């Protein structure tokens, strides 16, 4: 017999399906915002019915009574009413983004008529869903905020009980609490991407980072690994974050992709010293262009990316390809040194990490040479909270970042694995798991950048 799917489960499935369609992330998040509000309203409606009947979905009244009878006399037992749920009927709410239909529960056999405090007789106000999204996701699902916003958006009749609102908030927050403590023993990554985004989350304090990690596992599937608030992007903050992942069972990855933050780099070299490290080329390009005049930026940018365009070389991944691209870096540096010495210095800083990705399968190169993907997702989070200026606390901030990133992760593309790429990555893993055999990148000779006589 097929199990009936509750309206709440159906909405969760809709959210997952949105990201599985492969549409642009911005479009996905707009739809998920509406579905997120729909989820909150649906959860509130179901909680109202639970409170009215004095029992949860599929729970028998006599079972509740027996359980309540075990309580002490000092404990007030919930009122258990006769009657039962009898399906749902659609109710449409008009919003500025279009109409959204939720499932209003129907009851049968009750001695008292059920009246939803959330809906009353009808709700068609255009700002209702938008207000709920802001109150619930941006403000961190606090009980007081949800109560106040419901009253503002839907009127005094929508004043849900404190216990009902609290149960709604706890059920949605619980998803993140379980996720952040989960066992990572079964997760083995080929590639680990690390990045952070800054948000204002404490009174009278500057913006602080939320550290994030995601990766591609040995089956070529994307995995959202970790999320944590920190006071800064220092070595200690990143080292603590990475150590926590390892202590929960995460296996050492083959390649770590990140920006050039000093604290992040030193933490990777301490905690993940057996992994190769790739400097994000998108961040490096920005660093270089920031020291170039507007007149030459277009040409410098074009030549920067030509350095790493290896398609026409026909070389297999490995040391020879790395050396070829490093010679291109030398040529670029020699050409632009007279005009932009600061830009060239930026390019040559940590230069060996710019070509680590060239040791991996060719079909992976364009995806593993930068960490820009997760940065774009963080951008959507920042865009959503821009109107409020500052989060009311750390929990609210991390909750919203998790809500966006975890749902977006279901739509991230992985890699198509082939027997050849699997064998290549397995050989590299064997080398990296034996410190004596780890590939050592020889320091590149310093290039003479003085103008020839």
Can you give me a brief rundown of this structure?
The protein is α/β, with parallel strands linked by helices. It has helices at residues 7-20, 25-53, 61-69, 128-138, 143-154, 162-180, 235-247, 262-271, 281-289, 294-307, 319-336, 341-348, 365-368, 372-385, 394-409, 419-432; strands spanning 84-93, 100-108, 189-199, 208-217, 222-229, 255-258, 276-279.
Secondary structure layout plus pairing:
Layout: H1 7-20, H2 25-53, H3 61-69, E1 84-93, E2 100-108, H4 128-138, H5 143-154, H6 162-180, E3 189-199, E4 208-217, E5 222-229, H7 235-247, E6 255-258, H8 262-271, E7 276-279, H9 281-289, H10 294-307, H11 319-336, H12 341-348, H13 365-368, H14 372-385, H15 394-409, H16 419-432
Parallel strand pairs: 3-6, 6-7
Antiparallel strand pairs: 1-2, 3-4, 4-5
Helix pairs in contact: 1-2, 2-4, 2-6, 4-5, 5-6, 7-8, 9-12, 10-11, 11-12, 14-15
Detailed description of the structure:
This protein has 453 residues and is an alpha/beta fold. The protein has three domains: 7-179, no CATH class; 182-278 and 371-417, Nucleotidyltransferase, domain 5 (2-Layer Sandwich); 281-370, no CATH class. The chain is built from 16 helices and seven strands. The strands form two sheets. Strands 5-4-3-6-7 form a five-stranded mixed sheet, with helices on both faces. Strands 1-2 form a two-stranded antiparallel ribbon. Helix 7 packs parallel to helix 8 (262-271). The longest helix has 29 residues, at 25-53. It is elongated and about 85 Å long. The chain starts with 6 loop residues before the first helix and ends in a 21-residue tail after the last helix. Residues 66-77, 121-142 and 435-453 have low confidence and may be disordered.
């Amino acid at each position: 017999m097929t199990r009936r799917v509750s309206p709440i489960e159906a909405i969760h499935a809709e959210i997952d399906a949105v990201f599985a369609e492969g549409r642009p992330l911005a479009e996905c998040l707009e739809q998920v915002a509406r579905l997120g509000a729909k989820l909150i309203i649906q959860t509130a409606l179901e909680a109202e019915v639970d409170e009215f009947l004095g029992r949860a979905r599929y729970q028998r009244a006599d079972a509740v009574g027996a359980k309540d009878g075990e309580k002490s006399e000092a404990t007030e037992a919930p009122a258990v009413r006769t009657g039962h749920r009898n399906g749902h009927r659609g109710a449409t709410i008009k919003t500025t983004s279009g109409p959204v239909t939720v499932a209003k529960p129907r009851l049968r056999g009750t001695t008292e008529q059920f009246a939803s405090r959330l809906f009353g007789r009808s709700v068609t106000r255009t700002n209702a869903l938008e207000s709920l999204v802001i109150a619930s996701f941006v403000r961190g699902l606090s009980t007081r905020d949800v109560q106040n916003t419901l009253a503002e958006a839907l009127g005094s009749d929508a004043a849900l009980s404190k216990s009902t609102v609290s149960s709604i908030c706890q059920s949605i927050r619980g998803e993140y609490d379980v996720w952040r403590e989960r066992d990572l023993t079964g997760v083995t990554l080929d590639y680990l991407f690390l990045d952070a985004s800054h948000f204002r989350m404490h009174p009278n304090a500057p913006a602080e980072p939320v550290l994030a990690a995601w990766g591609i596992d040995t089956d070529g599937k994307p995995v959202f690994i970790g999320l944590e608030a920190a006071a800064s992007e220092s070595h200690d903050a990143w080292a603590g974050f990475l150590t926590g992942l390892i202590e929960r069972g995460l296996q050492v990855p083959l390649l770590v992709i990140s920006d050039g933050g000093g604290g992040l780099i030193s933490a990777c070299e301490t905690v993940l010293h057996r992994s190769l490290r790739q400097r994000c080329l998108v961040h490096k390009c920005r660093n270089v262009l920031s020291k170039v005049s507007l007149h030459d930026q277009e040409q410098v940018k074009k030549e920067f990316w030509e350095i790493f365009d290896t398609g026409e070389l026909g070389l297999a991944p490995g040391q020879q390809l790395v050396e070829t691209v490093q010679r291109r870096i030398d040529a670029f540096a020699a050409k632009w040194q007279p005009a932009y010495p600061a830009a060239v210095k930026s390019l040559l800083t940590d230069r060996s990490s710019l070509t680590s990705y060239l040791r991996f399968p060719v079909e992976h190169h364009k995806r593993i040479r930068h960490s820009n993907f997760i940065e774009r997702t963080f951008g959507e989070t920042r865009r959503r909270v821009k109107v409020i200026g500052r989060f009311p606390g750390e929990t609210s901030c991390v909750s919203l970042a998790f809500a966006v990133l975890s749902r977006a992760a279901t739509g991230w593309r992985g890699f198509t694995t082939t027997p050849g790429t699997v064998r290549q990555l397995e050989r590299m893993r064997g080398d990296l798991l034996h410190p004596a055999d780890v590939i050592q990148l020889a320091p590149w000779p310093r290039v003479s950048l003085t103008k020839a006589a």
